[in-house]
Amino acid sequence: MSATRVPWQVKLSTLALIWGSSFLLMKVGLDDLHPVQIVTLRIVLAAVTLVLLLRVSGGRLPRGRRVWGHLFVCSLFLTVLPFTGFVTGELYVSSALAGIGNATTPIATVLCALAILPSERLTSRKLLAVALGFVGVVVIAEPWNLTGRPDPLGFALVVLAATSYGLGWTYNRRTLADVDLGGLAQPTALLLCGTVAVVPLGLGWWLLGAGGRSAPWHLAGQDRATDAYPLWLSLGAVAVLGIVGTGLAYILQYDVVRAAGTVVGSTVTYLIPVVSVILGVLVLGERLGPAQLVGFAIVLGAAIAVNRVPRTQIAAAPGGAPKVPVVEPGDR
After folding, report:
1. What residues contact residue 82 under an 8 Å CB cut-off, 6+ apart?
2. Any residues with CB less than 8 A from the CB of 257 and at least 6 apart, and which?
3. Can you tell me the distance from the alpha carbon of 104 to that of 11, in angstroms, rounded to the nearest whole number?
4. CA-closest candidate to residue 165, choices 105, 112, 88
5. Smallest Cα–Cα separation from 303: which of 208, 162, 191?
6. Who has the most CB within 10 Å: 105, 123, 196, 254?
7. Rg of the chain taking only CA atoms, in angstroms
8. Listed residue (260, 201, 175, 255) closest to 79, CA to CA
9. CA distance 84 to 201
10. Residues 6+ apart with CB under 8 A from 145
C-alpha cells in the first residue's frame, strides 16, 4: 500500500517555517560562533546534504566549464555574500528585523532585472511598488530617530544581503536561461561552488587573527556563565540551518512547485519574514517598534505588488518544476 501523500499546502507551510526560522537559528548560533564559522558550516553541511540527495535521486551535476563558471558567480551572490550579510547583520539587529530586511528581495530583484536584462521593462505598477518599497525601508530605518532607531550598519547589511539574492538570480537568468538545471542539480552545484569559495575565506579569516583562536573551528573564549544558550544548542542551531534550512528544504520547494505551480510556490517569499518576526518575538523575546511594523507592512505590500502575475499568466502557468528555484532559502 502506498504511503499517504502529504498535501502541498502542508509542505508550503513547512517550507515557510523552515526558511523563516533561519534568522532565529543564526541568532542562536552567534552566541558561541563567529559569523564566518556559521557561514562556513552552513554551506559545507548544505553541500554535503544536497550531494547525498542528488545521488539518492539519481540526478546529475551540470557539465561544461561555461556553466560552472557562471554557477560559481551565482553562488557568490546566492550563498556566500547573503549568508555572511545576514548573520553579520544579526550581530547588531534582531532576528525579526533581519527577516524583515529579507522581504526586500523581490524589490531588489526587479531593480537588478531592469539594470541587467535587456528584455525587462519598467511598468507603472513596478515603479510604484519599488517606490513604496523604498519608503518602507526608510520607515523601518527611522533616520529621524537618533536614539531608538535600529542599528544603521546592521540593517544596511541585511538589506544588502537581500539585494545580493536579487542580483544573483538576475545574473542566473541572464547567463543560464538556456541550460537545463532541473531537479536538485542547480542547488547542489551552487552549494558546491559556495564551498569552494567559503573554505578559503574561513581559513583566511583564521590566519589573519580570528580573535586569537588556535584553529578555525575553535570557539570564542566566552564565559559560559554569561552565555544565553548552551554550546550544544548553538552548534545544533547551525547544523539545522545547514542540513535542513539550506539542504532538505529544496526537496519541499520542488514538491510544492510540481504540485501547485511556480506562481503558488513563490508565495513562500512573503511568508518567510512573517515567520521570522513571529519566532523572534515569541521565542527570543525581541521587540519591534511601531515604525518597524508599519515599514514591514509597506515593504511586504510592495513585494507582493511588484511580483503580482496577471490572471491570464496564472491560468497558463505550468505546474512543472522550474529550471531554477523559485526563491533562495535564506535565508532563508
Report:
1. 161, 162, 164, 165, 168, 328, 330, 331
2. 265, 319, 320, 321, 322, 326
3. 24
4. 105
5. 162
6. 105
7. 19
8. 201
9. 11
10. 291
For 119-136, give one letter per residue: b (16+ CB within 10 A) or e.
Answer: ebeeeeebeebbebbbeb
Q: If residue 198 lies in a helix (H) or strand (E), which one and from where to where?
A: helix 185-207
Q: Which residues contact 313 (CB under 8 A, 6 or more apart)?
A: 263
Contact (CB, 8 A) for 292 and 136 = no
Cell numbers placing 175 = 547567463
Reading the block at residue 26, the C-alpha cell is 543564526
Tens-of-pLDDT digits for all 332 residues of the chain?
444 578 888 989 999 999 999 999 999 999 999 999 999 999 999 999 999 999 998 888 999 999 999 999 999 999 999 999 999 999 999 999 999 999 999 899 889 988 898 888 888 888 899 999 999 999 999 998 888 889 999 999 999 999 999 999 899 989 998 887 777 888 999 999 999 999 998 888 888 876 567 667 777 644 455 577 888 999 999 999 999 998 888 888 878 877 777 667 777 888 999 999 999 999 999 999 999 999 999 999 998 888 775 554 444 444 333 344 444 444 55
Answer whether 0.85 is exceeded by the pTM.
yes
